[in-house]
């Protein structure tokens, strides 16, 4: 039977290196979940190794029609191939239990994928995926690093982040112009943060939107504050850990002048 080959589109570079695919599949711990969702399987190189892991409930979501039909033909034993877009997927309708997310995430939507994961952090307990190396390093960066930023703080508030390994350009079809990085995020014990979580996000974004300035200047551009007495206001945002951003958020809430 003739098999339809998936198109190389949607900003995605398809993984061809089976050794790399095997390492990614093996990096999923399987701890605390039975369900795994692969985002954008494309030509199915990673899918084959995930399928061999025999997770009790393995699913894949693919937006491209030709890739979808190719996967259906190639993996007849994989019953749950969803034709759709993860970014518009109704997570609560598809998943009742905790699950993990994996995949070779398209570079052009990787940040959107991660922010959607954050929105559903109570169900998504683990992420093991490949992104542009620069993005992967930023997510896992510690405080004080020049790459530590908004995504570092927001994701590390709820997940333990590990940079696993680097993938060279030659591992893909077509080869990208940059290297890739594989990360693993595992849900930590913070069910809720010890502050207003929406305000926490605003404080983090305000701080890093002007990262060359001190927090005093960057927060003043967004919030009206009664005083400027907090000791961390003389620092730059990359100097604050997640816990210190949480504490700063509580202080901002106490000292914020609401608009009349």
Description:
- With 260 residues, the chain is an alpha/beta fold.
- The chain has two domains: 14-187, Rossmann fold; 197-255, Orthogonal Bundle (Helicase, Ruva Protein, domain 3), CATH 1.10.8.
- The protein has ten helices and nine strands.
- A seven-stranded mixed β-sheet has the order 4-3-2-5-6-9-7, with helices on both faces.
- β5 (99-104), α5 (110-119) and β6 form a beta-alpha-beta unit.
- α1 (18-27) crosses α2 (45-52) and α8 (197-209) packs across α10.
- The chain is elongated.
Number of strands: 9
Spatial gap, N to C terminus: 70 Å
Counted by DSSP, the helix tally is: 10
Question: What proportion strand?
Answer: 15-25%
Architecture per CATH nomenclature, i.e. the level-2 architecture of the largest domain = 3-Layer(aba) Sandwich
Number of domains: 2
Task: Give the SSE map.
Layout: E1 14-15, H1 18-27, E2 35-39, H2 45-52, E3 57-62, H3 65-74, E4 81-83, H4 91-94, E5 99-104, H5 110-119, E6 124-132, H6 133-140, H7 150-156, E7 159-167, E8 172-173, E9 180-187, H8 197-209, H9 215-220, H10 242-255
Parallel strand pairs: 2-3, 2-5, 3-4, 5-6
Antiparallel strand pairs: 1-8, 6-9, 7-9
Helix pairs in contact: 1-2, 8-10
Question: Short description, anyone?
Answer:
The chain is α/β, with parallel strands linked by helices and 260 residues long. The chain contains 10 helices and 9 strands. Helix 1 (18-27) crosses helix 2 and helix 8 (197-209) packs across helix 10.
Keywords:
disordered N terminus, 260 residues, alpha/beta, Rossmann fold, Helicase, Ruva Protein, domain 3
């Amino acid at each position: 039977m003739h098999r339809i080959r998936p198109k190389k589109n949607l900003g995605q570079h398809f993984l061809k290196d089976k050794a790399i695919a095997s390492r990614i599949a093996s990096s999923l711990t399987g701890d605390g979940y039975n369900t795994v969702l692969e985002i954008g399987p494309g030509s199915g190189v990673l899918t084959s190794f995930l399928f061999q892991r025999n997770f009790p409930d393995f699913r894949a979501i693919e937006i491209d029609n030709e890739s979808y039909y190719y996967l259906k033909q190639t993996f007849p034993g994989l019953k749950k191939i969803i034709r759709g877009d993860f970014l518009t997927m109704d997570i609560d309708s598809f998943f009742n239990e905790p699950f993990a997310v994996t995949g070779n995430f398209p570079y052009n939507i990787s940040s959107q994928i991660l922010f959607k994961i954050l929105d559903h952090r109570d169900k998504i307990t683990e992420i093991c995926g490949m992104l542009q190396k620069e993005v992967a390093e930023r997510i896992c960066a510690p405080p004080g690093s020049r790459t530590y930023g908004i995504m570092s703080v927001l994701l590390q508030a709820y997940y333990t982040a590990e940079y696993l390994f680097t993938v060279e350009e030659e591992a893909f079809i077509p080869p990208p112009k940059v290297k890739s990085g594989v990360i693993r995020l595992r849900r930590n014990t913070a069910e809720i943060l010890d502050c207003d979580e929406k305000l926490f996000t605003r404080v983090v974004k305000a701080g890093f939107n002007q990262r060359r300035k001190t927090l005093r200047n960057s927060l003043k551009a967004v919030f009206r504050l009664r005083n400027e007495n907090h000791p961390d206001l003389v620092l730059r945002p990359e100097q604050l850990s997640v816990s210190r951003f949480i504490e700063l958020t509580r202080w901002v809430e106490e000292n914020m002048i609401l608009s009349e």
